């Protein structure tokens, strides 16, 4: 189980995933306020894997735009996605596992991040506007205003469960349970 002897579990699971050619870079994705940061941190704590908060990789002008309630364009997102993709590649080249939070709202963003690598698995935190809006209204200290939720959902292209490497989790479940489900999913991959 993922939550026992974290370092040993991390090394063992990482080795198995690598040996089997299975994903060992997780991208925790979903619209703003779905719980990406919290769930990713819980997974990282269980596995002992490094975690990068995707928001920290945004160029300053992106943060300024979003803070003012201006939705980002594909061109705005490009340098941010490239930074995330570079981190994913670096982990892959180093044979290291890791976790990144990133909204990954469009399929082409997910493809850009994964770069065709089989090392990447997306964990999609799925929820409705009704599920997520109250979380955003209560959140403090984040640059993304709650008013941006509509634009996030308008941009969202839900992952295709038939041909994308993705685990879909319902945000209405407790976040500890979501992290455990993600770990359990990884631990059951053959290898």
From TrEMBL:
How is this protein annotated for GO cellular component?
A: cytoplasm
> What is the annotated signal peptide range for this record?
none
Which pathway does it take part in? Carbohydrate acid metabolism
Listed GO MF terms: ATP binding; gluconokinase activity
Pfam families in UniProt: AAA_33
**Enzyme nomenclature, EC number:** 2.7.1.12
Taxonomy, superkingdom: Bacteria
Catalysed transformations (reactions): D-gluconate + ATP = 6-phospho-D-gluconate + ADP + H(+)
- Going by the record, the broad EC class of this enzyme is transferase
Give the Gene3D superfamilies listed for this entry: P-loop containing nucleotide triphosphate hydrolases (3.40.50.300)
BP GO terms, sorted? D-gluconate metabolic process
Sorted alphabetically, which keywords does the UniProt record give? ATP-binding, Gluconate utilization, Kinase, Nucleotide-binding, Transferase
Give the family this protein belongs to, as stated in its UniProt record: Belongs to the gluconokinase GntK/GntV family.
Q: What name has this protein been given in UniProt? A: Gluconokinase
| Organism this protein belongs to | Komagataeibacter melaceti
Its ancestry begins with: Bacteria, Pseudomonadati, Pseudomonadota, Alphaproteobacteria, Acetobacterales
């Amino acid at each position: 189980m993922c939550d026992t002897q974290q370092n040993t579990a991390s090394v063992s699971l990482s080795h198995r995933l690598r040996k089997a050619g299975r994903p060992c870079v997780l991208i925790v994705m979903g619209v703003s306020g779905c719980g990406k940061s919290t769930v990713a941190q819980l997974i990282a704590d269980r596995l002992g894997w490094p975690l990068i908060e995707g928001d920290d990789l945004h160029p300053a002008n992106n943060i300024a735009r979003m803070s003012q309630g201006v939705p980002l364009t594909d061109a705005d997102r490009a340098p941010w996605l490239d930074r995330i993709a570079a981190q994913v590649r670096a982990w892959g080249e180093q044979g290291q596992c890791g976790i990144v939070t990133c909204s990954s709202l469009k399929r082409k963003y997910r493809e850009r991040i994964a770069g065709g690598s089989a090392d990447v698995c997306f964990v999609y935190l799925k929820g409705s506007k009704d599920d997520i809006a109250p979380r955003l209204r209560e959140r403090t200290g984040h640059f993304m205003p709650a008013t941006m939720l509509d634009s996030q959902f308008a941009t969202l292209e839900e992952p295709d469960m038939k041909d994308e490497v993705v685990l879909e989790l319902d945000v209405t479940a407790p976040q500890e349970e979501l992290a455990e489900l993600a770990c359990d999913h990884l631990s059951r991959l053959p290898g």
